[in-house]
Amino acid sequence: MTDLTIIGTGNMARGLAARAVAAGRSVQLLAHEDKAKADSLAAELDGKITTGVLGEQLTGALVIPAVYFDASRAIVEQYGDALTGKVYVDITNPVDFATFDSLSVPADSSAAEELQKATGAKVVKAFNTTFAATLSDGTVAGHPLDVLIAGDDAAATQAVVEFASAAGLNPVVVGPQRRARQLEHMGFLHILLSANEELPAYQWNSALKVVPAA
């Protein structure tokens, strides 16, 4: 068994795996098809990382697919009952890429809630408001990243809090799973800032932070 299973080898997978290594956590890293990509990333990060490909048994207590929303739905369908009881961390922003003007889930739902309907895992929303480049370091402008978290299961939510804290990040539980609706709109807005060529200061290098009064 490992502490986390991270699915994917792209930029978000890299950032999450870097934070896991910093936290001293063991990681199962699954590539979509090419195990060599997982092997290369594992060697680069030099932590307690085992590698494999999508479809192999999930060994992590926390499962974090670092993929788009549609791919997350396919993963939930593929693994089925194997996810039951595990903590599934949904990091997605279900952007409608056809219009790039809205989200692709119903207004009264969220990616996290849609995934929860399809799995026996305990779905917790987290990391969707952070960018890959900033996760690698865990800070922006000297400030630790906020990880905004929403979940219905107290133990599952706490497991994500503990991982974020151990990784040097600042976990903030915003409420139950339905608060993922607001988090996904926040994540979408954050994406739009970096996708806007008229805002050159925001190029996937920013962070959303809630600053309490001193």
From TrEMBL:
Keywords: Oxidoreductase. Transmembrane segments: none annotated. Residues 4-94 form the Pyrroline-5-carboxylate reductase catalytic N-terminal domain. Pfam families: F420_oxidored (PF03807). It comes from the Bacteria. InterPro entries: NAD(P)-bd_dom_sf, P5C_Rdtase_cat_N, STEAP_metalloreductase. SUPFAM superfamilies: NAD(P)-binding Rossmann-fold domains (SSF51735). This is NADPH-dependent F420 reductase. It comes from Arthrobacter gandavensis.
